[in-house]
What does this fold into?
Amino acid sequence: MFLFDHLPVPHLRTPLPGPNAAEWLAKDDQYVSPSYTRYYPLVAERGSGCVIEDVDGNRFLDFTAGIAVANTGHCHPEVVAAIQDQAAKLIHMSGTDFYYRPQIELAERLAKAAPGPTPKKVFFANSGAEAIEAALKLARRHTQRSRVVAFLGSFHGRTYGAMTLSGSKPIHRRGFSPLVPDIHHVPFPLESEGCLDPLEDLIHRIAPPEEIAAVFVEAIQGEGGYRVSPPGFLQSLRDFCDHHGMLLVIDEVQSGFGRTGKLFAVEHFGIEPDILCLAKGIASGLPLGAIVAKADVMDWPPGSHASTFGGNPVACRAALVTMDLLDNEYTANAAARGKQLQSALRKLPSGIGEVRGLGLMTAADLPTPAARDAVIQAAYHRGLLLLGCGERAIRFCPPLCISSEQIEVGLTIFEESLREVCNVPALAAC
Ligand code: PLP
It folds into this structure.
């Protein structure tokens, strides 16, 4: 079904980076913002399923899905066909000022798919950070309270509100002050016992609870190292928010759309958010973000928030097909392949620490940040694309269409890369 299905992968035909890649890298260096963080010099040309081909014809097995975005696989033929069909009909009309079918259809689909029985409404944005900004504005406006709580280790994006909510790395904030006022951080719990103690401390010492609009939390911290909420934590948080009249905002920008083996990660924990923030995998790679809020929470009047491109017709059509593919096949595959991946990682002879996550949102700790970075480099040079997260973890977030054989191939390369790094004395904490 995918273009590269019958070709050997990985397949490296030049040293890396190849000659064509080297030319593009030089131009990138001259013209593109230096703020981007690239782990290795991959210059992608085409993608198909779990495979990326670079500008020199080298084929890589992709365990990144373009940072957890290409959940249905790169360029799934049904997604491509929907995009082509919609592009020939209507590319843009601005859903904030006019109506068109794909936006309304997708809103209905998301509202019905979001966890919990309460009726929902949807606001469309273009990215994860924009979804978070929308949630922050809606929470403050709806509650008429100013303070907001978020967790250390969280990542919510890079616009001012989202950056202030994030508690991941100083580089995200350094030099950008002043940030948004009245945002507080508490530690993300590692275990259920006492998991609300820091929040209780906060409301007793610093932030009167009647001034807190919302608590923002990732069900599984993404950038923070694929840390899964401990059992009972989200339920306790739900009760805490209800007790104090605060909104519970769940950021599923990375964990949503089948990645954890359920459509939304929060379904593993049995709670209903007041606002759910979505982006990344929602439209198989087209820029789209959304918040799905309880209908009585989404009570802002016309003109109070909008976006020219948010909910663009082409992106919405891609999202509708994405949801069909996830429902029919790929979410279940993510659950099965995630189990396979985690049990194999836990059996690896040496070199890795904790293995954690759910489904294909799985991470493994390396002994040091340097060892982690070296393993990612070694894997790239063998044709496997990996990314890091947290302080010293490697994240495994391939497209959800990945086969059992592709998992095996990736694991073999990962193990070889580990072995290579463990033989370098300076890195050999393995
Ligand atoms: N929230 C989470 C959990 C994320 O992982 C990210 C991006 O990695 C964002 C928000 C921000 O999304 P975007 O980069 O689309 O603005």
